[in-house]
């Protein structure tokens, strides 16, 4: 039973995280998680400072 | 408390970002390639108790309105009105760099010159009289070496003082523009000044010069603010233009540029610059360029370098990749032996460890490739490659600047489409820009690398670097062909000229390479541990629910009971078709059946009607659907799908070995999947980025449909062609 509850929590957490992530991507047009995004200097406005 | 704003301005590759990093302690990316900074970057620094707000502007050669970088730089300088501009001047290219300096003077903002790369200038036998330069320009000039931070303190002390106290008596010289321009310029300046036209933003003389240069942005603002005066000014410009055309066969912009360069030449010849070596001396960079940018040798060297990079990455990563894969297998084993069978155990082992572990297992390859790219970038080689390929790019309707966008997007396997799309901002022609954006998705971004590494390792293990080289050539060829198609159909228009400064070669520092490699690799690992982990968990759920109905479970239980009862069952044919009649085979068959019954399984099975033409089964289809969120997910989903059917001693077999042993797979299917993954719809983030940058969702949708169609057609051609010819089956 506890495994089911823990799984449910993880699933909900993952769903919320993914939804928030892609919503942010939709709003900003870029992905700070992407391995190239810090290197062109074009994704973030002073984000790395 | 407010901070005094200080702007860093200078030519591309003059060392602005290095200086910005040295001042603010930030780790903004620095590359030995012009145009690294496309937008402004900001940071803060406290100098002797004086808080400074520092903004790093894009590198520009001038303050005209030709390119987005120039517009961004100009916008900040005129609207944010910094207290001081630190003008970073490449000491080894004084004549060209001072052109921007003169334009900064005309903007009326106090300027401090950072005479950077003094070491390079000295290495070239140049002797610069800094005191004389400062006296003649009547602005402070501080020698610096941004990479080592030399001169930084003095520069900040001077800039900070001017920000606090103002420029005082320091006023730079006014450039004369000759007998044709000067009288008109003065008259225009007076009219602008009297009417207050745009004087809240720009000095009147600067506005007058922009009218003379027919600067579209300033003229449009003038027309909107004071139509009558603007019309009068334009009439004056037309008159002087006509006069110049008749008498000198030129135009005001040309005269203005000539006088600026003339001023600089006179300044340098007046004793500011002494060249210790003979004029025809070839610098080391020029000597290297004779080979590396040679018409025939250059492309050959480029191919050898790329092949070397892939050879290095795949050869040296073999052992760490195995360590990581063994480590993840051991971790799965620990969880299985400590956690009772159930949903959570399945999620952790199949979804998290096999899913994300499947991606992370290839991180060593990524690290080695990132290291190689950092070396090429920091050394200054990439600028040469852009220069060499410009002719090829133009042939296919692209632009020399498209090269860097391709490289950032994965031209050398390992980039990312999102910054690639953003890097197209340096292209002036909207059609060239769109064609570049729409084809960047074909590049081999870092997300596709785990897919390639998995399938190449499983089916082409003896030819890893050769395969990566082939894939690089295929992706570039496809991008070129599609770009040509777009430029001759929906994106027709003329090509624009390409001018690129070739920076000097520099030996990359170990620290610089380590920082660049670490930054990219860490972001890659972080992505795997956050968004890819979450997506893998969701795909695990899609592959597990709904569960098999009780009636089907009962059928498998019956088989197990029959097996336990003795060998007679085999004769009676109770065991499911396709199993070898052992308990673990029944378990595996049940797991496969459950997977097919799940939401993802049904989706994959439904797609088989189309994808069987490419040789893809339902599990591959599910993986490809997952790949829309990020191409790494293809590996994650395949890993989860195959781990759910694994039992007993097959649990610790790596995914690559499982695929190689699966009769549904062969080198032809693997190659077809690689090409499909390379070409099909860009990931969600790239699509959103493309929509934002193109200013329309229409192009994003076009990219989704077009790329997937191209991928499908290519996959069918390869698979069916291979089968017909008996290759790879």
Short description:
Chain A has 49 residues and is mainly alpha-helical. Chain A has one helix and no strands. With 729 residues, chain B is mainly α.
Q: What's the average pLDDT of chain A?
A: 71
Helix-strand sequence of chain A? H
Quaternary structure:
heterodimer
Give me the Rg of chain A, rounded.
16 Å
Number of domains of chain B: 4
Give the low-confidence spans of chain B. Answer: 32-37, 571-579
Outline the biggest β-sheet of chain A. Answer: none
Strand content of chain B: 5-15%
Beta-strand portion of chain A reads under 5%
Low-confidence regions of chain A: 37-49
Brief descriptors of the model:
heterodimer, A: 49 residues, mainly alpha, disordered C terminus, B: 729 residues, Rossmann fold, Helix Hairpins, 4 domains, six-stranded mixed β-sheet, two-stranded antiparallel ribbon, 33 helices, 65% helix, 6% strand
Give a structural overview:
The complex is a heterodimer of chains A (49) and B (729). Chain A is an all-alpha fold and 49 residues long. Chain A has a domain at 1-27. Chain A has one helix at 2-28. Chain A starts with a helix and ends in a 21-residue tail after the last helix. Chain B has four domains: 4-165, P-loop containing nucleotide triphosphate hydrolases (Rossmann fold, 3-Layer(aba) Sandwich), CATH 3.40.50; 178-275, Helix Hairpins, CATH 1.10.287; 297-349 and 372-488, no CATH class; 516-725, no CATH class. A six-stranded mixed beta sheet of chain B has the order 2-3-1-4-5-7, sandwiched between helices. A two-stranded antiparallel ribbon of chain B has the order 6-8. In chain B, helix 7 packs antiparallel against helix 10 (227-248), helix 14 (343-360) crosses helix 23 (531-542) and helix 15 (363-379) packs antiparallel against helix 22. Chains A and B meet through helix 1 of A and strand 2, helix 14, helix 17, helix 18 and helix 22 of B.
């Amino acid at each position: 039973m506890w495994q089911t509850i823990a799984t449910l929590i993880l699933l909900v957490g993952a769903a919320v995280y993914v939804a928030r992530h892609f919503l942010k991507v939709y709003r900003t047009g870029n992905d700070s998680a992407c391995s190239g995004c810090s290197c062109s200097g074009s994704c973030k406005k002073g984000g790395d400072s | 408390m407010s901070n005094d704003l200080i702007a860093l301005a200078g030519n591309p590759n003059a060392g602005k970002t290095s200086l910005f990093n040295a001042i603010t302690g930030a780790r903004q990316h620095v590359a030995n390639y012009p145009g690294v900074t496309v937008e402004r970057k900001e940071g803060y620094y406290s100098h002797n108790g004086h808080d400074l707000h520092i903004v790093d502007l894009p590198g520009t050669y001038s303050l005209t309105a030709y390119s987005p970088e120039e517009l961004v730089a100009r916008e900040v300088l005129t609207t944010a009105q910094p207290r001081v501009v630190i003008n970073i001047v490449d000491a080894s290219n004084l004549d060209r760099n001072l052109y921007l300096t003169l334009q900064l003077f005309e903007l009326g903002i106090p300027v401090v010159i950072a005479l950077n790369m003094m070491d390079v200038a000295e290495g070239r036998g140049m002797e610069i009289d800094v005191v004389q330069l400062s006296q003649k320009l009547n602005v402070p000039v501080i020698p610096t070496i941004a990479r080592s931070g030399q001169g930084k303190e003095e520069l900040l002390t001077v800039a900070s003082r001017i920000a606090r106290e103002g420029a005082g008596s320091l006023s730079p010289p006014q450039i004369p523009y000759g007998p044709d321009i000067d009288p008109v310029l003065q008259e225009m300046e007076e009219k602008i000044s009297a009417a207050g036209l745009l004087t809240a933003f720009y000095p009147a003389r600067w506005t007058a010069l922009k009218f003379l240069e027919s600067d579209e942005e300033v003229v449009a603002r003038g027309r909107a603010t004071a139509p009558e005066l603007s019309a009068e000014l334009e009439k004056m410009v037309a008159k002087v233009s006509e006069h110049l055309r008749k008498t000198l066969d030129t135009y005001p912009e040309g005269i203005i540029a000539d006088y600026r360069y003339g001023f600089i030449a006179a300044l340098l010849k007046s004793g500011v610059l002494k060249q210790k070596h003979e004029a025809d001396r070839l610098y080391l960079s020029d000597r290297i360029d004779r080979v590396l940018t040679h018409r025939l040798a250059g492309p050959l060297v480029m191919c050898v370098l790329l092949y070397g990079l892939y050879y290095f990455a795949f050869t040296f990563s073999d052992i760490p990749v195995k360590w990581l894969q063994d480590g993840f297998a051991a971790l799965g084993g620990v969880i299985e032996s400590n956690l009772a069978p159930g949903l959570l155990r399945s999620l952790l082992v199949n979804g998290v460890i096999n899913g994300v572990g499947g991606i992370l297992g290839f991180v060593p390859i990524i690290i080695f490739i990132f290291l190689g790219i950092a070396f090429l970038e920091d050394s200054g080689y990439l600028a040469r490659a852009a220069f060499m390929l410009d002719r090829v790019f133009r042939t296919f309707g692209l632009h020399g600047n498209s090269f860097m966008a391709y490289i950032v997007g994965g031209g050398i396997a390992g980039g990312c489409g999102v910054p690639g799309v953003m890097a197209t901002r340096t292209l002036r022609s909207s059609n060239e820009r769109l064609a570049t954006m729409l084809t960047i998705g074909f590049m081999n971004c870092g997300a596709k690398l785990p897919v390639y590494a998995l399938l190449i390792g499983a089916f082409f293990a003896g030819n890893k670097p050769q395969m990566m080289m082939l894939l690089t050539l295929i992706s570039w060829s496809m991008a070129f062909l599609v770009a040509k198609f777009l430029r001759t159909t929906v994106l027709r228009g003329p090509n624009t000229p390409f001018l690129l400064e070739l920076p000097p070669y520099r030996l990359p520092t170990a620290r610089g390479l380590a920082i660049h490699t670490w930054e990219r690799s860490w972001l890659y690992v972080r992505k795997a541990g956050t968004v890819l982990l979450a997506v893998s968990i969701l795909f695990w759920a899609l592959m597990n629910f709904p569960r098999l109905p009780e009636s089907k479970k009962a059928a498998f239980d019956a088989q197990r009971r029959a097996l336990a009862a003795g060998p007679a069952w085999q004769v009676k044919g109770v065991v499911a078709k396709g199993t070898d009649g052992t308990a673990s085979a029944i378990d595996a068959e049940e797991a496969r059946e459950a997977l097919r019954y799940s939401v993802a399984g049904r989706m994959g099975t439904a797609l088989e009607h189309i994808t069987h033409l490419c040789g893809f089964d339902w599990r591959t289809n599910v993986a490809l659907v997952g790949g829309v969120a990020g191409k790494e997910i293809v590996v994650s989903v395949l890993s989860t799908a195959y781990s759910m059917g694994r039992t007993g001693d097959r649990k610790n077999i790596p995914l690559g070995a499982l695929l190689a042993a699966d009769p549904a797979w062969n080198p032809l299917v693997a190659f077809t999947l690689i090409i499909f993954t390379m070409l099909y719809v860009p990931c969600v983030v790239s699509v959103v980025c493309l929509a934002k940058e193109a200013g329309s969702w229409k192009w994003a949708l076009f990219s989704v449909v077009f790329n997937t169609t191209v991928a499908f057609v290519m996959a069918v051609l390869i698979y069916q062609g291979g089968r017909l010819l008996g290759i790879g089956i």
